[in-house]
Amino acid sequence: MITGLAVAAVIAASLIFKGSTGLQWILSGLTVGSIYALIAMGFSVIYASTRVINFAQGEFAMLGGMLIYTFSGRAHIPTALGFVLAVIIVTLLGAGFERVAIHPLRKSNVITMIIVTIGFSIFLRAVAKWVWGSDTVPVASFSGDKPIRIFGASLVPQSFWVFGFTALAVVLVFLFFNRTLLGKGMRAAAGNADAASLVGVNPSTTSLTAWTLAAALGAAAGIVIAPIKFVAIDVGVMLGLKGFSAAVLGGLGSAPGAVVGGLVLGILETMVAGVFPSGYKDAVAFLILILVLLVRPQGLLGKRESVKV
Amino acid sequence: MGDGIEKHKGPANVHDYRTLLLVAIFVFTVPLWAHFIPGSVIHMDIVNLMVLSGIYACAVVGLNLLVGYAGQISLGHAAFFGIGAYSVAILCTNFAWFPTWLGIAIGASLAGIIGWLVGVPVLKLKGHYLAMATLGLGEIIFILFRELTGLTKGTVGITSIPPLSLFGLRFDSDFKLYFLVWGVVMLMMLIIINIIRSRVGRGLRALHSSEVAAEAMGVNTSKYKTKVFVLSAVFAGVGGGLFAMFQRYVNPESFHFTLSILFITMVVVGGMGNLWGGIVGAIVLTFLPSVITALPEWIPVFPSSLQNFGNYTLVLYGLLLIVFMIFLPQGVAYGLSRGASYASTGARRLRDIWNARKYEGD
Q1: Candidate from B147, B216, B314 with C-beta closest to A280
Q2: How far is B35 from chain A (nearest CA, A)?
Q3: How is chain B split into domains, by residue range?
Q4: Which one of B288, B315, B328 would you mutate to disrupt binding with A, by most A Cβ within 10 Å of its Cβ?
């Protein structure tokens, strides 16, 4: 129902803002929103299995972007190969961090684990600064820069790569959680960790898989958006902030919620930027976000949790 | 979030007041001995770093009351700190006659009022949704600092903020400001100790362990949560005002999301829900970067390849944060108190052994 409402709102908005401008906003919004959705899925997957908010999620995207710059911009490795290499490196980092820091801390309180992820994000940013310096670097588009015109709105070809990758990632994540034994086990563990471990879902595997998946999603997001937004070592903070906002907006811990949250936040932001002075764009977006939370404290697609005493 | 909370035994505990006195004596004697350590030995300015620690501590002790005792998270306290700082900066640079102490008072009140206006609706949210809402609030206020250029001069920032003067005294050096800042922190600790001992404090602990149960027992949870939120906002506002007069310059970047995160990190590293955690966390994390930078000077064998590694400060900072959490999840303040109790037990053992020897000798 909420999805229906969102779609209706989008259609209404495109009618109100008369044709091409509205469509332009929605298409640009969907591009940014797809990236937020990918990062938000990372937040949600980790949250669902470990109750941790991973503050290093944005840094995974930053690393993805910087690595694709090195591979395709500097080393002239074919983009597809560079993409795979970058995702593998970031994924290994994420999985390694889970084994070294999150797994040993699994019994301690959640805030402690969250602070550890803050430490990890500072560490990753510092290492990135050492490797790449603090300049903003350009990344070549996957297939040229000639804008494509659709019904009066224009869109860079990279946007289609963004849509494609996001759709692919959503489908893969959906299949993983609904068709594989490991994925189903993870859903069970997210619902009730103790009951799931009684029937043989290993919490250690669950946590490692969640981090691996989140790192891969983050890296992919950073890589596909790099040609549109440029990359610098500090982009992770803002991407993480927006990804977290999107995850909460959609309902933390719900993968479909993360996608809806990301897309809604992206469109909202672009529309706000079209109406208000650009400096205030984030302020208005956050204000709407807070208002949404006050009306629906469990997020758009989240389920209201019953309180146990 | 229930772990690491101090269990208070009985209401009439003079222990905390005694600790406050000891901490105050220690803190106020620091400049006396720090003055005699030559800078060429330690490679950092202890008094200067301690003033900054104290300023951060103002915000952190209040936040610790909110997070550690009431169990409510805030990722937006940099906003209140910034409101305090900008109030002082705007009032005292535009009106030369404006008493600087009044600037701090107005900044703190404004932070409190905004804290109340925001707290009443937002504190209905729980857990990560509250975190998200406070984060958004911090972001909105940060953007206002940046965009209301007529008032705040935008990203350029406000320069030549006058130093604090009070009763004809001008706090224009680190040394003078030191005593004022830490005096304020000690006053805040006194207030916090009294709150924790009171009916409100017991209500807060009940609320932390279970909001529903507390409400069923007649604790007005939303009133208590709002009170603590406003108090922590006021404390952060005071800290911000002092910050403006210490730096003599403010710009929006100082009050971004990263500062809110730093505050929360200080709470957790120091010891969440530990009375002294806020102060310890503020000192540890303010000194850490300087200590790391000074490391190569202290340890001659420090690999020279690392000395050229310009960002090793932040790399080590991130790693140490992780290490702290893995080995001292209850916080450094807890570690210190355990260390002290081991030391006193050890001393007692030694004395017993010594006495036993003496009697054997007789």
Answers
A1: B147
A2: 33
A3: 15-330
A4: B315
Model confidence over B290-303: pLDDT tens digits? 887 777 777 766 66
Q: Is residue A218 part of a domain?
A: yes
Question: Based on the structure, what is the number of domains in chain A?
Answer: 1
The verdict on domain B15-330 having CATH code 1.10.3470 is yes
User: pLDDT band at B116, cuts 50/70/90?
Assistant: very high
- pTM to 2 decimals? 0.82
Written as one letter, the residue type at B316 is L
Spatial separation of the C-alpha atoms in residues A26 and A270, rounded to whole Å: 8
Residue A305 inside a domain? The answer is no
Q: For residue B16, how far is the Cα from the chain centroid?
A: 18
What is the rounded distance in angstroms from the CA atom of residue B124 to the CA atom of residue B126? 7
A-to-B residue pairs, Cβ atoms closer than 8 angstroms:
141
At what angle are helices A181-191 and A203-229 packed, to 10 degrees? 100
- Kindly state the tokens that stand for A288: 């709407």
> For residue A210, what are the CA distances in angstroms to A132, A176, B7, B249?
28, 11, 36, 44
Q: B243 vs chain A: nearest CA distance in angstroms?
A: 24
Please check the confidence at residue A17 and state whether its pLDDT lies above 70.
no
Which residues sit opposite A154 in a β-bridge? A149
Domain containing residue A76:
2-9+22-142+156-295
Q: Please, are residues B331 and B271 in contact by the beta-carbon 8 Å criterion?
A: yes
pLDDT by residue (tens digit) across A158-175? 888 999 999 999 999 999
Mean predicted confidence (pLDDT) in B340-348: 83
CB environment A200-223: b (16+ within 10 A), e (fewer)? ebebeebbbbbbbbbbbbbbbbbb
- Residue pair B234/B108 in contact (Cβ under 8 Å)? The answer is yes
A148, part of any domain = no
Q: Confidence class of residue A282 from pLDDT cuts 50, 70 and 90?
A: confident
8 Å CB contact of A115 and B264: yes
Q: Rounded CA gap, B174 and B172, in Å?
A: 7
- Looking at residue B274, the DSSP 8-state letter turns out to be -
DSSP letter for A244, please. Answer: H
| Cross-chain residue pair A248–B128, CB shorter than 8 Å | yes
In a domain, A103, yes or no: yes
